[in-house]
# Entry
Amino acid sequence: MNEQDRDLTGAWALNALDAEERARIEELFAQDPEAAGEARSFEETAAELSAGLEPEAPRPELKSSLMARIARTPQHSVESSEPAVPAEVTQDDSATGPTHRRADVPPHVPENEDENVDDDRHQHDDPHEGRAENEDGDETRDEDRVEDQATVIPLDRYRSSVRRSRWLAVAAAALMVTSVAGVGLWSAERAAQDEDRATIEALQSQQAASDEERQMISALLTAEDTSQLTIPSETGGTLHVMYSRDQQSMIVQGADLPDLPSDSTYQLWIIGDGGDSFEDAGLITEPGQTVMAHEELPPESLIGLTVEPAGGSEQPTTDPIASSEL
Amino acid sequence: MAHDPPEATAEPRRTPEARSGRGTAADAAAVSLAALLPRVAAGDEEAFSRLYDDVSPLLFGLIKRVVRDVSISEEVLQEVFVEIWKQAPRFEARRGSAHGWICTIAHRRAVDTVRSTDAARRRDSEEGLRAIEEKVVDVQEEGILRVESERVATALRALAPLQADAIRLAYFGGYSHREVAGLLDIPVGTAKTRIRDGMIVLRDSLGVTS
# Structure
């Protein structure tokens, strides 16, 4: 470990590193037991600092909802926080796939979105098992059921592929606004980083989503149950959908949808009750437009796209040209 | 250690708690935490319930200090406990204390939240900064009210002012070391070493064994 990185042990223990730095130092811990030991002792020290704060009992209601939640939340299995023990570690993994790749990090080391370093405000994963989250998460696995119609990418994989994702520009813009607002806090060194420049450009070209939209993206990126769908449309083009039941939020972006005559429009629907109820989820009036919807997504509901008269309809007047279970 | 083998064998072994010389409520909590966590790891919801009762005020205080917004703090608190529930089977006592582990989860989650939500935008105003700086300074004042806190306040006072500021901004303010550098108007490298040097002093004065 070089001396510069070695100095990061303190910042590491105070969670004062960005995702990239965090990943880097955690890798180095594996090769430097002394630094790892120091980091661990700082972690304990940080915990002592929290004892310096006034404790404050949370509202009692919180506990009952929490208890209900953990009752249906499976726990992780024991494996994977061990230092890498080749051969033995992998045997349990076959069922859930390649979940825990970096087991060789010290203290209680947070596995994090290390590839996903577009912005250090982008690190709201589980401290310890970021990637594994969706694979043994606490909700039912809707993903499996819809594989036929659509490609579902669990959020963990989604996150690792976020660079390539079409959400990136939007998400980066949303996240970058935070930094722009607080730009005085940022060192010139950091602002000069290419990646930031790229996100700033993305931001400018995107015309910055509204506050609400940014909030939704942020919420979606953090939610544990967020899934992403790509749904082909019968008339060409696709819909990209990112949604979370927990957050009651959905972002839909059209891609390559054919232009419509000016007297008609694409309209999105949330279809419930086995096809009997239709909730308007927004219009897609321009190709590539992003639509955000804040509504309840009941279990077994579908998302559908129809072509409607310009201005949209109260209820769909044509058959869906794209749909998928959510 | 090296020079006292006779006493060491003659006397009953002292517990780590006794040796640390801080027979406070925190020790009792630490003991019960250490006992509860393996039960939680085994899926014991009753143990989890007790653990929640034991540590939620501490964690909520910590989360609220970093996050500040009450309703966001409540959400974070819930996420933290779900996390504790899920991860408990992977906690390993030999790598650190249960208390340290739990606080790390809570603090990490709180920090990630302020860096990723609009809470960050709100405080990134000049005004927000002043408020947080004042709040951070309050840590010492508040600390005096409680025995356990006095220990921490004393330890913080032992730091060079810039070390203490850097650590407070990072830990209680949730700022990254780069932001800390910006706030204190010092180079990033300096912030980094100041935090580390300060942590060494704190660790020693708080009696944390590495």
